[in-house]
Amino acid sequence: MIRPCTVAELEAAPSFPDLLAEYAAESAIEGMPPPSARMETYRALHDAGLLHVLAAWVDGALAGFITVLAAPLPHYGRTVAVSESFFVARAHRSTGAGLKLLRAAENKARELGSPGLLVSAPYEGDLFRVLPRIGYAETNRVFFKTVSHE
After folding, report:
1. pLDDT of 93-140, one tens digit each?
2. Which of 10, 82, 129, 149 has the fewest CB atoms inside 10 Å of its own CB, making it the most exposed?
3. The domain containing residue 75 runs over which residues?
4. 8 A C-beta contact, residue 45 and residue 71
C-alpha cells in the first residue's frame, strides 16, 4: 500500500533505521560525509508544507519511501517538485513498491502545480537503469568535487 505519511510516522516504523542504513550504503557519494538524516529538518520542511512524504507498506511494515520537495524556483518562476530521498529496501523491489511510489510522487507533483518531477539516481545503480525505461529522460549529470577535509 502506498500512502502519504508524516515524518513522525516514518521515524516510528520499526524498519526505518534499517532502511536508512541500507539506503546510506547503496547511495553513498565518495568524498561526502556519511549520511546522517536530520529528522528535525525533515519535520520542519514537512510542517512548512515544502516536503511531502509518501511511503510503501508491505504487510504492515515500511518497505520504502519517497520525499518530494516542492518550492518555487526563481529560475523557472514556478513550483518545481524534486525527489529529495527515494528508497525501497532491496527485499521489496520485486513487489512494484518503487514504481508505485514514483507514480504517487508524480501525482503529488502534478497536484502541486509542478511541470514535472526531478529524480536523481546513483550512477549505474538500479534506479539509474529503471528511470529511462519508465519515461524519464536524462537531462543533466551531477558532478562532485571534495573541497573541504573536515
Report:
1. 989 999 999 999 999 999 999 999 999 988 888 889 999 999 999 999
2. 149
3. 2-134
4. no
Q: Supply the CATH number for residue 50's domain.
A: 3.40.630.30
Number of domains in the chain: 1
146 domain residue, yes or no: no
Q: Half-sphere exposure of 27 toward its Cβ, with a 13 Å CA cutoff?
A: 21
pLDDT computed for residue 16 by the predictor: 95
Tell me the CA distances in angstroms from 140 to 10, 127, 136, 145, 149, one per residue in order.
31, 15, 12, 16, 27
- Joined together, the cell numbers standing for residue 126 give 538500479
Q: Is residue 31 part of a domain?
A: yes
3-state secondary structure of 6: coil
Residue 48's alpha-carbon distances to 73, 78, 93, 113, in angstroms, are: 16, 18, 31, 17
Cβ–Cβ under 8 Å, residues 71 and 91:
no
Cell numbers for 139: 537531462
Q: List pLDDT tens digits, range 51-97.
A: 999 999 999 999 999 999 999 999 999 999 999 999 999 999 989 99
Q: What is the pTM of this model?
A: 0.91
